[in-house]
Automatic annotation (TrEMBL):
InterPro entries cross-referenced by the UniProt entry: GTP_cyclohydro_II, RibA, RibA-like_sf
Keyword annotations: GTP-binding, Hydrolase, Metal-binding, Nucleotide-binding, Riboflavin biosynthesis, Zinc
Pfam families (alphabetical): GTP_cyclohydro2 (PF00925)
SUPFAM superfamilies listed in its UniProt record: RibA-like (SSF142695)
Reactions the enzyme catalyzes: GTP + 4 H2O = 2,5-diamino-6-hydroxy-4-(5-phosphoribosylamino)-pyrimidine + formate + 2 phosphate + 3 H(+)
UniProt keyword GTP-binding, yes or no: yes
Keyword DNA damage in record: no
EC numbers on record: 3.5.4.25
Any one GO molecular-function label of the UniProt entry: GTP cyclohydrolase II activity
Needed cofactors: Zn(2+)
Pathway: Cofactor biosynthesis; riboflavin biosynthesis; 5-amino-6-(D-ribitylamino)uracil from GTP: step 1/4
Identification of the protein by name: GTP cyclohydrolase II
UniProt source species: Streptomyces fuscus
Lineage of producing organism: Bacteria, Bacillati, Actinomycetota, Actinomycetes, Kitasatosporales
The GTP cyclohydrolase II domain, residue ranges: 9-160
Length: 194
């Protein structure tokens, strides 16, 4: 189902996706049909996207992607994969461990979950449903491109997001860099409590 979002973007909802999530796409026109459109896969982060938490970079990444898409066109897929796929309540439980110095990936493991449980089959299905089988991907996470390719999406280019480093999220970003995200981090005190 399509819903107009102002004059610059359109929301698209989906039924029959491979999982139970209420995922949506935010489409920004126009994009040049000769080049693959810019696409951002953004995993839901209530604390960062809505409540303004500074312990992650999710809100700034979402804002950056929306600004870029408003200028260049493309699609943002808002994926209901809170807490790297472990859910909101579990994520909030991991915050307590992170407060004691455990990184976000290890905190997930300590509560009996995977370090990152997100999968991108649903995103690939959403893209194909929208007719977007060739895309330029806006991400620092190489797993997103790998998984999209494994599910038949041609990722022609990966464009990095900005590095939204603050003293509050330095340990979080350092953990993402150690996990393989393509981040070039300036030196900050990453041992400070989050």
């Amino acid at each position: 189902m399509r819903r107009a979002l102002g004059q610059r973007a359109e929301l698209v909802t989906f039924h029959g996706l491979p999982d139970d999530g209420e995922h949506l796409a935010c489409l920004f026109a126009p994009w040049d049909d000769t080049d693959p459109p810019l696409v951002r896969l953004h995993s839901e982060c209530l604390t960062g996207d809505v409540l303004g938490s500074t312990r992650c970079d999710c809100g700034p990444q979402l804002d950056e992607a929306l600004r870029m898409l408003a200028v260049h066109g493309g699609a943002l897929l808002y994926l209901r994969q809170e807490g790297r796929g472990i859910g909101l309540y579990n994520k909030l439980d991991t915050y307590l461990l992170q407060n004691d110095g455990v990184d976000t990936f290890e905190a997930n493991r300590l509560i009996g979950r995977g370090a990152d449980e997100r999968g991108y089959l649903t995103a690939a299905v959403m893209l194909r449903t929208l007719g977007l089988e060739r895309v330029r991907l806006l991400t620092n996470n190489p797993d997103k491109g790998r998984q999209l390719r494994a599910h038949g999406i041609d990722v022609t280019e990966t464009l990095p997001t900005g590095v939204h480093l603050t003293t509050d999220n330095a340990r979080y970003l350092a953990a993402k860099a150690r996990s393989g995200h393509h981040l070039s981090l300036p030196t900050l005190d990453t041992e400070a409590p989050a």
